[in-house]
Amino acid sequence: MAYEVEKSDEQWRAELSPAEYQVLRQAGTEPAFRGEYTDTKTEGVYSCRACGAELFRSTEKFESHCGWPSFYDPKDSSAVELIEDHSHGMARTEVRCAQCGSHLGHVFAGEGYPTPTDQRYCINSISLRLASAEG
């Protein structure tokens, strides 16, 4: 897939910290309950840490108590790309930034959360950058 933001592996490594690179470019996962935005209530827009594309809004963030920031809907349906993921012996749906292809997390459906979509976009904090509505 061709993305609007294309960079070489060397460029990504130079621009991202080792931890950011491991999650965003190698589909890693940050440890549960340690991410910067897991319990954040700040109003604003969450963007891709790799390319700056707007992905989620705080108004769609909810408490799932799963250890990672959870959203019930992306800012724009075309902001994220969903890909079947059969790694680790599971069938999951990976969520990537549609602009640069960076790994954000996974989306799960039908878990019974009281949200409008019954979806949980379980996103790594390290994949995001929050721009506060106040500032």
UniProtKB/TrEMBL annotation:
One of its GO terms (cellular component) is cytoplasm. Its cofactor is Zn(2+). It catalyses: L-methionyl-[protein] + [thioredoxin]-disulfide + H2O = L-methionyl-(R)-S-oxide-[protein] + [thioredoxin]-dithiol. PROSITE patterns: MSRB. GO terms for molecular function: metal ion binding; peptide-methionine (R)-S-oxide reductase activity. It holds the Pfam family SelR. Its EC number is 1.8.4.12. Residues 9-133 form the MsrB domain. One of its GO terms (biological process) is protein repair. Keywords: Metal-binding, Oxidoreductase, Zinc. NCBIfam families: peptide-methionine (R)-S-oxide reductase MsrB. This is peptide-methionine (R)-S-oxide reductase. It comes from Streptomyces zagrosensis.
